[in-house]
């Protein structure tokens, strides 16, 4: 019996109709079905995913293998079941609502064989405005260092793994983690690998944001996420010795998994949950957040983590409300040193060291911080944005202030200072927003760019406090696009650019029509 070059494992739970495209993209891979094994583990689906898997197994009996099991509550158990059954030289994991570029597996296996790599990343792109961190895909490289690159920011399991490595070290997914269970697997694989490589020359993997947004990641609760963050941080601490290498990985976890527990939606939690989250975050920061990590954290995350570590729930709520409801705090300037004037700064009761608030090295970025006053479409031509800085001296500090959506810089119409701050108005052309939009759409964060202190500071524009999403439909060639102005989970102003597809239209109709479509 011929050993397949690659086994693709997909954990399936209620992902119709996306599942069909996923499976089709697998059986049509240019590597050929004789070199491919697909193991799909149905984790108790109730939406027709099970019968669809069986249909593909009947159509491709030598390639597609299906396992049905009761629902386990997350992707870890079905992924482990797939690993038990895999026979390929390599294994590759794909989300059952995602899909691959036609040449993906052939290119990945070829590179792994040529470079003798144990782990190979192929460039991921987002679909339906799903955000994918792109830094690791800046260029192809045969050797990528986990600790000296952007790899810690791309720790999903959507990679090619040498199965001999997986089995030699007994790598498996922790089944008690409903969220993020792929990260311990991926981190240890990268630590144990002789070589990790990256390919940036092709769109290998299309990561889909479901239009109904019902998967477990979107639905997970704060206490579940806290427990998973605790497991991740503890796992890394047990795997990597203390020092710069451990900090390089933990920086990602404190910036994302831990700090995201303290975003603006923290305000809506029950007080008992808030207290438990604060206690958990305090324990993590006291045990594992080093000075090296602290100094590399974004200022918002830093002051919120400081509030949880040194203060109490009420103090953290005051810090979050400053961002979510009151606006940008003024900077405290002492000679050449700048500090963010958040609640708690030099409060003798809290005794939080000044270093948690210091922004001296990023003062230009702080000058670029603006609040959105209004954002509206000017017909189909432009987006008009009015933003406000709390600094009356902004024109003196910055020789110019511009607004940009992603890489599209707008035209500054006016910069007007008064006794309480400075107002900036800009026009961003919509046609240029469509130029770089891929087939899956784009999510562009609106940011301010300020030329100050001999450099260009940049900061995401904070969205309106009571955002009302606005939409416009634009045509580019034969294709229509929907542009939506809204705010993201961080409270930042964003523009979602998405092509109009039959699937998107049907999803929108289902949301608007009652059951039965009447």
From TrEMBL:
UniProt keyword list: Transferase
Name of the protein in question: Glycosyl transferase family 2
TM region positions: none
Domain TarS/TarP linker: 230-319
A Pfam match: Glycos_transf_2
Record has Metal-binding as a keyword: no
SUPFAM superfamilies: Nucleotide-diphospho-sugar transferases
Superkingdom, taxonomy of origin: Bacteria
Glycosyltransferase 2-like domain span: 7-129
UniProt key word Acetylation: no
UniProt xrefs under InterPro entries: Glyco_trans_2-like, Nucleotide-diphossugar_trans, TarS/TarP_linker
GO MF term set: hexosyltransferase activity
